[in-house]
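Example record

The entry below shows one chain as it appears in the dataset: sequence first, then structure tokens.
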Amino acid sequence: MTTEREPVRWGVLGCANIAVATVIPAMRGCERSRVVAISSRNGGKAHAAAEQLGIPRSYGSYDELLSDPDVETVYNPLPNHLHVPWTIRAAEAGKHVLCEKPIARTAAEARTLIAVRDRTGVRMGEAFMVRTHPRWLEIRAQLRRGRIGDVRLIEAHFSYFRRDPADVRSRVEWGGGALLDIGCYPVTLSRWLFGEEPDAVIATVEHDPDFKVDRLDSALLRFPSGHATFSCGGQLVPYQRLQIFGTRGRMDIEIPFNAPPDTPTHILVDDGRDLRGGGIEAIEIPAVNQYAVQADRFSDAVRGVGEVPVPLEDAIANMAVLDALARSAASGRWESPKGAEATRRD
């Protein structure tokens, strides 16, 4: 019988770079999570990853890992078009699943997971590591205490440069493109910080002429309490920033999405007394690996302590906004995420 203090035993589907280079190394420092198996369609690749990362077992197929009775929870970092099918197969094998973002290519696709989760009784969640980082928890707490007055505007930017036909993000049919890859971050954070859903969104998009994926996106989300704007690009200079504007102050968050794990991070709070930054206070948050925190928070939920940080209902709502943004880019009009959800349920 497992106990509340016993680490949750994880298995990893595939040897994606995010898993091998970032998530699994972070989990090696976890208190409540332990990676015990990794799989790949290439057995040699899985074996090499297991040797490199100190993982006890490797498998040459995903099904073999799902058949391992010692694996309790699965991390799914496969390409976007494989998120839903392999999350379903893992759940039907009795495994809890933390699926990499975006949880699906569309809200309709993501919604199919609800019935599977409820039928199998497993825990399912979307891997938005920012939502468990202590810095973002502190930001949300300060906003709710009214530190900068009423929040009216959130502005964000996220970009990198990568143009490679072999990259899964270059494949339209696999759910590639900048919006699903990185635009999902300002969407989830703005929804979470406002504590409400946007009633309408509008976007404009530029596509890669060869790959046809979106490579530059600009968007405006209209919330009951204010606005959120963001831009994202997959073929731009690497840069990240997010600012939150209230009626009495402003917050500026450096490197908001990929916070460094080995140095403290800061929340800059400006009371607006002058335009030179004379009223800026820097709040320091101790260094933490957000991927390790994410894994342990999900493991806690598996052990019945707390809830899944980003549950399916939240993941589906996020996908509905992303769907509406894609529709708006095509139509040139404001689109409603709620309207899309109602239509699809009918």
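Notes for this example: The CA atoms of residues 102 and 184 lie 7 Å apart. DSSP finds ten helices and 14 strands in the chain.
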